[in-house]
Design a protein that fits this description.
Chain lengths: 281, 169
């Protein structure tokens, strides 16, 4: 009797063992098929971008006597803005202010102000630069007023009584067509990144799966970023001629910004490429 | 019959874990992560019986080195899976945005709670607990450490149960 039980249990053991082995074999085959048909045999590795450029190749243009244009675009002469005449240009330490005549009325404009849809971008010693619909307009100083008095081009120091007219913006100084940023101003934003996103919205601009730059989605009116000349829709494509085609490059700028002296943003505005230049002091 | 069914079920579960082509499944996960801009680089892979250990990987997110990690361990037995990331050294430039140092991040999935992943973060701060809702694709993290609350206040929100961080995926 005991022998029969032993034989039976042995048979059962073999049966269970067969079931276990068969199941395991089936699962193994299943995994092999899945692996062969659906899974990769090679992993993904990070490919370091090969092109590396220093961020600080720029010369100190502020020290150059030649005043550079803030933006490079197709320039249309003032003949196309019939309604506006440039009467005077004032460069203070803090701001550029111009006086224009429109329909017999005189108006005072500072950088960023608008007249008839034209936005004042800046001014050199003899002309004012406006933009509208992605095009630049250059209005030379009115020849009549220039002839009458050359003092219409004046460099003025901001005094307490003139502060009402020209609001000093100590972190961002527009002077002689050059925008100077204080290093503390940069530090303020690198320390508190949250403050940046309260004033400006930026997202990567992807075309055919590749980042071509970073697009400005919004700029808070009157914010520091608006004063820097950035506008909604601008695509920042390069910084100091380093194309901004990855997050890594954007982070490189963030990492190195405390040590750079000049900053040039290449942007696309309504399809036109232009440059915004800043000196950091 | 019932005994046989239970036996088969148990064997299937164990076999699925033991015979799984873990490396290849990991490569598939790597590929999926890459599609979302995350790359695990320079790792050494070690197979276990029911686990996979990835030693010394560097984590890149959208081309940016986020962290050097000592060890990532994936462990699964079908109804319970766990991913543990140990000793995360966050890149200096990003330490402003993430609490550090992080000793361990553990993400676990259980069939008992099929729509959520649980998250546990430990480090030189009070443990951080959170959840990832697979249904709503929302990450909710409760923050109780006072220092962390002060440091990241601008990114946190206050609810009935205290401060929390929430983001959708």
């Amino acid at each position: 009797m005991g022998g029969i039980m032993k034989l039976l249990s042995k048979d059962k053991f073999i049966e269970y063992l067969l079931i276990i082995l068969a199941t395991m074999a089936l699962i193994k085959i299943l995994w092999i098929v899945v692996g062969f048909l659906l899974l990769d045999s090679k992993g993904v590795e990070y490919q370091k971008p090969s092109e590396v450029k220093a961020l600080y190749y720029r010369t100190n243009f502020a020290s150059e006597k030649v005043q550079k244009k803030v933006e490079k675009r197709d320039v249309i002469f003032a003949d196309t803005i019939d309604s506006i005449k440039l009467l005077a240009i004032y460069h203070s330490l803090d701001k550029t202010v111009i006086t224009v005549s429109k329909s017999g009325k005189t108006e005072v404009l500072s950088t960023g102000d608008e007249i008839d849809g034209y936005i004042l971008d800046g001014a050199t010693a003899r002309e004012a630069l406006f933009s509208r619909d992605g095009k630049s307009y250059r209005i030379p100083l009115n020849s009549d007023s220039e002839d009458k008095s050359k003092s219409s081009i004046r460099y003025v120091t901001v005094k307490s009584d003139s502060k009402k007219e020209v609001t000093p913006d100590r972190d961002i100084v527009h002077s002689g067509g050059v925008t100077t940023l204080k290093r503390d101003f940069i530090k303020k934003y690198t320390k508190n990144m949250g403050d940046i996103w309260k004033n400006i919205g930026i997202n990567e601009k992807v075309v055919d799966g590749n980042i071509i730059g970073f697009q400005v989605n919004f700029v808070k009116r009157g914010s520091d970023f608006a004063r820097l000349g950035l506008r909604r829709g601008d695509i920042i494509t390069a910084i100091n001629s380093n194309s901004l085609d990855s997050y890594a490059k954007a982070l490189d700028v963030y990492k190195n910004i405390s040590s750079i002296e000049n900053l040039t943003l290449t942007i696309k505005r309504r399809g036109e490429e232009m440059e915004l230049e800043y000196e950091i002091k | 019959m019932v005994k046989k069914a239970i036996l088969v079920f148990m064997v299937v579960i164990l076999s699925l874990a033991i015979f799984a082509p873990k490396r290849e499944l990991y490569y598939m996960l790597e590929d999926r992560l890459m599609q979302n801009g995350i790359i695990i680089h320079n790792e050494q892979i070690e197979d276990g019986l029911i686990s996979l250990t990835i030693n010394h990987p560097k984590i890149y997110v959208k081309g940016i080195l986020i962290a050097n990690v000592d060890k990532i361990r994936l462990w699964t037995i079908f109804f319970y899976s766990r991913l543990a990331v140990g000793n995360i050294d966050i890149d200096k430039s990003l330490q402003k945005f993430v609490p550090s140092p992080i000793k361990k991040v553990q993400v676990a999935y259980s069939l008992a709670n099929p729509t959520n992943l649980s998250i546990l973060v430990t480090g030189d701060f009070e443990n951080i607990n959170g959840q990832l809702s697979l249904k709503d694709r929302v990450v909710h993290i409760d923050v109780t450490d006072k220092k962390l609350i002060n440091r990241f206040k601008s990114q946190l929100r206050k609810g009935e149960n205290g401060w929390y961080y929430e983001t959708s995926l």
